[in-house]
């Protein structure tokens, strides 16, 4: 298929008049975190284990639901069972533990959280069966068709949980397989007008030492496991890094205990994000991220009108749960 300029005159004029448009905010002002989500595109994130990749993307998705009403299908078997994942989402939404503890959410907060999560999130539970990438995105279509819920974003976490589906043209090579599949996923995002999040790992790194602290350095975009294909095929690319507590950042400052350096390594389409490094912190009680301003004040995500639910007289109705499940069944 080909196009000439005259074929897109209306859209071209709109671009000239309005400029490039940012996507959906993930909760922070552009000046704090210049990253937005545009439908019909992809975000690939890579980091070492225990870096907070899942925590960060789930928070982005919750904020997208609060601010813009977006809905999500997620596949994150490493996080645990469907019940584990739903409880984590409730915790991140309310900012209090779902599971009984000294500071658990009360029954009213629980109902608010459950109604919110039930309205915006669907979890793919394959009952311990392997699925391929194409099978996953087909399941997303089925979710939308069967539930009537418009799906705006998807999450695969991590990529290596999907079964590989080599064909003849891949010649048994991972780079060729990745190139074909990531290209297909990018086209699928454009066709379905969804945003596809994919989390993956970085390749093996060599340990380094500084000031008596041994650690893995911050990875680069070309160090995604599987090679540079990710960098070539990705639209937006994010790389979170958890520096070791107390390590000097090179500017006479020690990294904090729960500090995360988020690097935006690639920004496409233009204008939706801005490359750079941004310092975030994880509040491990609320399981929500925040930035700090020059006075050290915490800047949590602005979730808009959803924040008023906890302060109003809104009384959510209990959900009717299907309790016909095997608690020992793995996710």
Tell me about this structure.
This protein is an alpha/beta fold and 331 residues long. It has a single domain (22-310), classed as Rossmann fold (3-Layer(aba) Sandwich), CATH 3.40.50.300. Helix content is 28%, strand content 20%. It has 7 helices and 14 strands. It has helices at residues 9-18, 53-68, 82-94, 107-120, 133-147, 174-192, 229-233, and strands at residues 24-25, 36-37, 41-47, 72-75, 121-123, 153-156, 195-201, 208-210, 213-215, 236-241, 259-266, 276-283, 288-292, 298-300. The strands form 3 sheets. A 10-stranded mixed β-sheet has the order 5-4-6-7-3-10-11-12-13-14, sandwiched between helices. It has a two-stranded antiparallel ribbon with strand order 1-2. Strand 13 and strand 14 (298-300) form a beta hairpin. The longest helix has 19 residues, at 174-192. The chain is globular, with a radius of gyration of 21 Å. The N and C termini lie far apart (42 Å).
Using only C-alpha atoms, the radius of gyration works out to 21 Å
Number of helices: 7
Number of strands: 14
- What is the fourth-level CATH superfamily? P-loop containing nucleotide triphosphate hydrolases
The percentage of residues in β strands lies in: 15-25%
Strand order of the largest sheet: 5-4-6-7-3-10-11-12-13-14
- Averaged pLDDT, please? 87
Write the layout of secondary structure elements.
Layout: H1 9-18, E1 24-25, E2 36-37, E3 41-47, H2 53-68, E4 72-75, H3 82-94, H4 107-120, E5 121-123, H5 133-147, E6 153-156, H6 174-192, E7 195-201, E8 208-210, E9 213-215, H7 229-233, E10 236-241, E11 259-266, E12 276-283, E13 288-292, E14 298-300
Parallel strand pairs: 3-7, 3-10, 4-5, 4-6, 6-7
Antiparallel strand pairs: 1-2, 8-9, 10-11, 11-12, 12-13, 13-14
Helix pairs in contact: 3-4
């Amino acid at each position: 298929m080909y196009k000439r300029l005259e074929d897109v005159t209306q859209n071209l004029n709109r671009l000239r008049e309005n400029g490039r448009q940012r996507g959906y905010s993930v909760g922070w002002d552009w000046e704090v975190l210049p990253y937005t989500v545009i439908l019909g595109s992809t975000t690939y994130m890579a980091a070492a284990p225990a870096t907070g990749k899942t925590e960060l993307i789930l928070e982005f998705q919750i904020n997208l639901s609060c601010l813009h009403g977006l809905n999500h299908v997620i596949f994150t078997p490493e996080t645990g069972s469907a019940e584990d994942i739903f409880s984590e989402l409730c915790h991140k939404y309310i900012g209090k533990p779902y599971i009984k503890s000294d500071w658990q959410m009360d029954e009213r907060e629980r109902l608010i959280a459950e109604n919110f999560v039930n309205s915006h999130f669907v979890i793919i539970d394959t009952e311990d069966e392997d699925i391929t990438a194409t099978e996953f995105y087909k399941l997303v279509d089925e979710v939308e068709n069967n539930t009537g819920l418009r799906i705006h974003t998807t999450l695969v976490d991590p990529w290596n949980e999907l079964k590989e589906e080599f064909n003849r043209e891949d010649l048994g090579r991972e780079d060729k397989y990745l190139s074909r599949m990531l290209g297909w996923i990018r086209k699928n995002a454009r066709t379905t007008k969804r945003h596809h999040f994919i989390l993956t790992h970085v390749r093996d790194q060599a340990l380094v030492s500084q000031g008596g602290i041994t650690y893995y350095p911050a990875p680069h975009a070309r160090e995604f496991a599987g090679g540079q294909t990710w960098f070539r095929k990705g639209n937006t690319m994010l790389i979170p890094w958890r520096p070791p507590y107390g390590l000097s950042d090179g500017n006479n400052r020690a990294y904090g205990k729960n500090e995360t350096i988020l690097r935006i390594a690639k920004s496409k389409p233009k204008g939706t994000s801005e490359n750079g490094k941004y310092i975030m912190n994880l509040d491990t009680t609320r399981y929500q991220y925040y930035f700090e301003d020059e006075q050290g004040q915490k800047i949590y995500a602005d979730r808009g009108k959803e924040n008023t639910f906890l302060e109003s007289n809104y009384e959510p109705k209990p959900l009717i749960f299907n309790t016909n499940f095997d608690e020992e069944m793995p996710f």
